[in-house]
Amino acid sequence: MDLFSSLVPCFHAALKMVGILVTSYYLYNAVDFAALYLKPSKLHRYLHNTETKPAWALVTGGTSGIGKNFAHELAERGFNVVVHGRNREKCATVVEGLRKSFPAREFRILIADAERVACGNCNQKDATTRDEKYVDFDTILSSLEDLNLTVLINNAGGVPRSPAFEALECTPEQQITSTVCLNLSFPMQMMSRLIPLLKKNSPALVMNIGSLSDLGIPYLAPYASSKTSLMSLTTIVAREMRIGRHDVEILGVRVGSVTDVSHTSAAASLVMPDAKTMARAALSRVGCGRSNVVGYLPHALQATSLGWLPGWAAERMIEKVAVA
């Protein structure tokens, strides 16, 4: 009995210490989470002249939605902008609007179909009977080498064909390949070709736009898995830049539901911002010290809340998103 009585204070002390450690852990995570969305953007680091040349930014998929708003926000903050798209008329329209809004800035157009990345023998069964025009990344690089390119935003992405939600076994071979090219192969090749130029013009930034579909949303297998791989690629290349001591920030920004984009024009809300709000939120995360973030705070709260639920409840929530 005396032994038990002597152990009680030790047991209480141990419980108290565990309580302190657990509380400290959750408090630290809460503060760390809040700090991410309170830190000011460091986008201004990349607005600098190199050999008297002004700073340029390249936005892929810049003719509509978030990409169009990225172009507008960057021009407003002092960057000259290259607008990429596959439709020359749409690019010209966007650039015309930008020139009217920002007459002091310069703008260029880059035409390339991000779905048409050369990929060995895939989907070339009838290549002899089709006029195949694959993306020429060497030409893209040569068209940008005269610029002080300091920012690359890999925004181009999406599901190339309708319907967007479809079981994998029902998805045509061509759509699978096009989706992977658009959301993974194209941005990977752009990074591969342009990082040497960005290093030369450093400090520089690469921002890759991901998706919260990487939580595992059913019926989006090619798209969601490509976006998951893109965020993994972002983390890997960010580490390569740090190991090599290159002043090139590699930032992956995951995006949830957004309106004022090609696939929806619903009224904006707290959990479904418009494309302009989303573009601003993404740029606000620049210089946050992480390689992979959720760009918009309410989206981050949604994603984080899944981790607080029991596994079975989180699974139900994710499945409901797919059938809503």
TrEMBL record:
One Pfam family this sequence matches: adh_short
Gene3D superfamilies: NAD(P)-binding Rossmann-like Domain
UniProt keywords, alphabetically: Oxidoreductase
InterPro entries: NAD(P)-bd_dom_sf, SDR_fam, VLCFA-Steroid_DH
Stored SUPFAM superfamilies: NAD(P)-binding Rossmann-fold domains
PANTHER family on file: RH59310P
Sequence similarity: Belongs to the short-chain dehydrogenases/reductases (SDR) family.
Protein name listed in UniProt: Short chain dehydrogenase
Source organism per UniProt: Apiospora aurea
Origin organism lineage: Eukaryota, Fungi, Dikarya, Ascomycota, Pezizomycotina
